[in-house]
Specification:
Number of strands: 11
Shape: globular
Distance between the termini: 40 Å
Helix content: 25-40%
CATH topology of the largest domain: Nucleotidyltransferase, domain 5
Number of domains: 2
Strand content: 15-25%
Largest sheet: 5 strands, mixed
CATH superfamily of the largest domain: Ribonuclease H-like superfamily/Ribonuclease H
CATH class of the largest domain: Alpha Beta
Radius of gyration: 21 Å
Length: about 290
């Protein structure tokens, strides 16, 4: 990696790094300084994005910041090129909730009169082969509501489509993973900073020898099966939740997504432990995944 920190501080850091009682975190480098491999095979485009919003509900809240960065990945799923991060602010038309202002550092004055360039954002999204976010189920709901024409595009989640714990990492939040996996820190909780952090994380090589991006894409492109526990009695809700089932308020049912090979075992568990003998089964690909 080309140097972005001073030689003097790097020499001091190297001394500490060599000692088993110390661990060094470096500030997140500019994305154009990330060491990237030469492309092998077909190269495709991913739109890495993050949103900051006024609430958790896309039906009533507003996007106040949107950041998108195009990256190129090769046939092995490795990031081989990065473009600049595009970032827009938007005035929601009402004062920010205090906890959102505290979380993001944004103020009403920062947002006053600002507007997301929807044409530019849609061009970036439409021009990508897939969309990547950390906790994609959150961002997908906001993006597909605002830009219906990209609904059905593959979404990939760096939170859920990588088995971080299986690789020995305890954290799953972006900031924790950035430090534990990539050795960087990022002090800003803003959409543009989070996109840069996610790109750096995905470019990092995991103990498996593959990059995080490779692991994520390999996992995401495998079809899974969603089991919907139709008619499961109310009294088994805690059992379902402990098993990993999620509640869908739209259809008022619990559901879980499993690998195809685990479908029979999950059906047997539903019958024996939840009294559900005829669950609805639906094959899920990355064109439907991370949507409720």
């Amino acid at each position: 990696m080309r140097q972005w920190l001073s030689p003097d501080t790097e020499r001091a850091a190297a001394l500490l790094e060599a000692h088993p009682d110390y661990r060094i975190l470096r500030s997140l480098p500019p994305l154009d300084l990330l060491p990237l491999p030469a492309a092998e095979g077909r190269v495709r485009t991913a739109a890495v994005l993050d949103t900051e919003t006024t609430s958790l509900d896309p039906a009533t809240g507003h996007i106040i910041e949107l950041a998108i960065c195009h990256v190129w990945f090769d046939a092995r799923g490795r990031i081989v090129g990065v473009r600049r991060v595009h970032d827009w602010l938007e005035d929601p038309g009402y004062p920010l909730p205090p906890h959102i202002a505290a979380l993001t550092g944004l103020t009403d004055a920062d947002l006053a009169g600002r507007r997301i360039d929807d044409a530019a954002a849609l061009d970036l999204l439409s021009g990508a082969d897939l969309i990547v976010a950390h906790n994609a189920s959150f961002d997908a709901a906001w993006i597909e509501r605002r830009y219906p024409s990209v609904a059905g595009k593959p979404w990939v989640c760096s939170l859920k489509d990588i088995d971080w714990r299986g690789h020995g990492y305890e954290g799953r939040q972006l900031g924790a993973l950035l430090g534990e996996v990539a050795g960087f820190f990022n002090t800003r909780h803003r959409a543009d900073a989070d996109v840069a952090a996610l790109v750096a994380l995905l470019a990092t090589t995991l103990p498996s020898g593959r990059t995080a991006c490779s692991e994520m894409i390999l996992s995401a492109q495998r079809p899974t099966v969603r089991l919907i526990a139709n008619g499961a009695p109310f009294e088994v809700k805690d059992r379902l939740k402990a098993r990993g089932y999620r509640w869908n308020p739209k259809i008022r049912c619990w559901w879980i997504e499993v690998a195809g090979s685990a479908t029979d075992d999950e059906r047997a568990w539903l019958a024996a432990e939840a009294g559900c003998h005829r669950p609805t089964l639906r094959e899920i690909t990355w064109h439907q995944r991370h949507r409720t």
